[in-house]
């Protein structure tokens, strides 16, 4: 699972979801869904988001182990 700190970074820069969406070329709904963890971004989108925030990609997105494999 990929966790993100998009909302925190947006707040730091004073950006609304609409602003970030425009800067990376997606719809506002996409940003909202990413922030809520409904789906994972493509590598290109994750890269572009981190670039807007001016931080390395791993400061915005982190991969956490999927524990479902342990339950099987």
Summary, kept brief:
The protein is mainly alpha-helical. The protein has six helices and two strands, in the order βαααααβα. The chain has one domain: lambda repressor-like DNA-binding domains (434 Repressor (Amino-terminal Domain), Orthogonal Bundle).
Can you characterise this structure?
This protein is mainly alpha-helical and 72 residues long. It has helices spanning 6-13, 17-24, 28-35, 43-53, 57-60, 68-71, and strands at 2-4, 61-63. It has a two-stranded antiparallel ribbon. The longest helix has 11 residues, at 43-53. The two termini are 17 Å apart. The model has no long low-confidence stretch (mean pLDDT 93).
Give a topology summary.
Layout: E1 2-4, H1 6-13, H2 17-24, H3 28-35, H4 43-53, H5 57-60, E2 61-63, H6 68-71
Antiparallel strand pairs: 1-2
Helix pairs in contact: 2-3
Keywords: DNA-binding
InterPro entries: Cro/C1-type_HTH, Lambda_DNA-bd_dom_sf
Pfam family, one: HTH_3
């Amino acid at each position: 699972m990929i966790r993100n700190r998009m909302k925190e970074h947006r707040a730091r820069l004073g950006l609304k979801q609409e602003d970030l969406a425009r800067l990376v070329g997606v719809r506002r709904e996409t940003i909202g869904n990413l922030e809520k963890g409904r789906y994972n971004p493509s590598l290109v989108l994750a890269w572009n988001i981190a670039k807007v925030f001016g931080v390395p990609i791993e400061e915005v997105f982190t991969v956490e182990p999927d524990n479902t494999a342990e339950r099987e």
